[in-house]
Amino acid sequence: MSALLETRELTAFYGDFQALYGIDLAVAAGEVVAIIGANGAGKSTFLKALVGLVAAKAEAVRLDGAAIGGIAPHRLVGLGLALVPEGRRLFPSLTVEENLRIGTAGSRGQWTLEAIYDLFPILAERRSSPATALSGGQQQMVAIGRALMSNPRLLLCDELSLGLAPTVIRDIYAVFPRICKAGTAIVVVEQDIGQAMAAADRLYCFQEGRVSLSGPAASLTREQISTAYFGLH
Amino acid sequence: MLNLIDTLLQGVMLGGQYALMAVGLSLAFGVMRLVNVAHGDFIVLAAYLALICMTTLGLHPLAALIVVVPVMAIVGYGVQRLLLNRAVGRDIMPALLITFGLSVIIQNGLLEVFSADSRRLDAGGLTAAGLRLGDGLAVGWFPLITFGLAVAVIAGLEALFARSALGRAFRAVSDDQEIVQLMGYDNRHLYALAMALAFAVMAVAGVLFGIGTVFDPAFGPPQLLFAFEAVIIGGMGSLWGTLAGGVILGLAQAIGFRVDPGWGILFGHAVFLLILAVQPRGLIPKTRDA
Predict the structure, then answer these.
(1) Domain-located, residue B287
(2) How far is B136 from chain A (nearest CA, A)?
(3) DSSP B16
(4) Would you say residue B272 lies in a domain?
(5) A153: region left, alpha or beta (phi > 0 left; psi from -120 to 50 alpha)
């Protein structure tokens, strides 16, 4: 498998506290990879290290073989990395459409404003509203749209389902196949194991900053996952 | 009656000057959430830069803007990029201390180079010429130009913020300086650009201030105070609010001067305190937080 993204022995620290103890993970083009794990397992830290918000060694993160660890966050979007942050983090001073436009970052590709409105028609109706006036699910759509506007090769999604109703979560995950069709890979951090197994091709389970289990989503059993998740034996 | 109209007119014109001085402060607070204590001193510095242009190049003070505005913008970019970016964050204290230090350095530097003598930027007949509006009622061309410039600058900045990609980025970095980086913007560069813009407006304010009034190196702090009052009265971060705040402050001072020549400044402060007590967030507060 030729990896789009590959991490090798990725470590991360918050001051003296070590959050990641050598993560090895690979994502191929067009693939959906889910990362599951308990609170504090290092899932969000892992995504932050990929986009440069947490320091990482250059050699620890490779995109298409090129070492990109520790590059400033504002340079990564040009390389094809986009993050849907935990809690959405939309810009409250900007309208829905402005939030989408600012995501463009000078890129060109299939994900234009029209394509996003086609993916999430409700956003076209609310385009002039302040972004934070929308419902939680609609805000999550804006956050995904904003990330897609940069036409990323790798879309990173942190806790998409946080605080959303199950039907809304299903609607949001339903667009994944359309995103992947053009070769975009998705890494999704997810608390909901059932949702993660349904949406992902492969699964990684983190436990205390280490990978405790990985494999094709279809081949893993519930027992294996709960052991890896909670560390029970 | 004519007296009253004249007083109000002078007050509004004075307000235009205060608003122009306050725009840079409002801009820096709106984007960076930092209060520049050296704001008034940089305005005075701009006036001295214009003085240098006049004596060495023989320029009219308004023509000196061609030099002073870009120079001040570069100074603003540098101050933000090299100094203040290190202090931007949740705590506003470090930025206050740094700019307080800059204020002391600028005042003493100007004192060393230019002495404590009062100066004025001689604009020829411009400050004496006036527009007759009727019997016994006239308004000076210079205050009119100042007021017009204040409105034009604010309208221009509002349009920049509302419509341009750069304005969008300014609003976004003010909202969330971490996430804006993932949109491909270097937040340190954005902050420095916003400060450059603020300093460019301060340069205009400084030159007009130097034409209209005598100044010396210690004139910065009172200008900071008036600018601060205009910003607070209008509401933090709102530029039209800053114009309204400047006009209210100017009106209060003009009315105070009319009541008793010693009460003008006091009236201004009293109105400021009154509005602060009744409407602590200012008249047109801009809520940027969700």
Answers:
(1) no
(2) 48
(3) H
(4) yes
(5) alpha
Q: Could you tell me the CATH number of the domain that includes residue A99?
A: 3.40.50.300
Instruction: Note whether residue B42 is domain-resident.
Output: yes
Distance between CA atoms of residues A12 and A57, nearest Å:
9
CATH number of the domain bearing residue B145: 1.10.3470
Q: Into how many domains does chain A fold?
A: 1
- Cα separation, A34 vs B43, in Å, equals 56
Residue A94 and residue A143 in contact, taking contact as beta carbons nearer than 8 Å = no
Q: How many angstroms away from the CA of A133 is the closest CA of chain B?
A: 9
pLDDT digits (tens, 9 = 90+) for B184-202: 999 999 999 999 999 999 9
Bridge-based pairing state of the strands A154-158 and A185-189: parallel
DSSP A4: S
B278 C-beta neighbours (distance < 10 Å), count: 8
Residue B191 near chain A (CB below 8 Å):
no
pLDDT band at B39 (very low <50, low <70, confident <90, very high): very high
DSSP states of A87-144 as a string?
T----TTSBHHHHHHHT-TT--SS--HHHHHHHSHHHHHTTTSBGGGS-HHHHHHHHH
For residue B289, being part of any structural domain is answered with no
Longest pairwise C-alpha distance within chain B: 62
The number of helices, as runs of H, and strands, as runs of E, in chain B is 11, 2
Q: Do A82 and B182 touch (CB under 8 A)?
A: yes
How far is the CA of A91 from the CAs of A25, A72, A99, A102, A189, in angstroms? 31, 21, 7, 10, 22
Q: How many domains does chain B have?
A: 1
pLDDT cut 90: percent of chain B above it: 82
Print the domain residue range for A215: 5-230
pLDDT in tens, B41-96: 999 999 999 999 999 999 999 999 999 999 999 999 999 999 999 988 778 899 99
Check CB contact under 8 Å for B182 and A93. no
Phi then psi for residue B218, to 5 deg, are: -90, 10
Q: How many CB atoms lie within 10 A of CB B66?
A: 10
How many CA atoms does the CB half-sphere of B19 hold within 13 Å? 32
Query: Residue B211's domain spans which residues?
Result: 2-115+125-278
Instruction: Scan residues 58-77 of A and list those with Cβ closer than 8 Å to B.
Output: 72-77
Q: pLDDT tens digits for A183-200?
A: 899 999 998 888 889 999
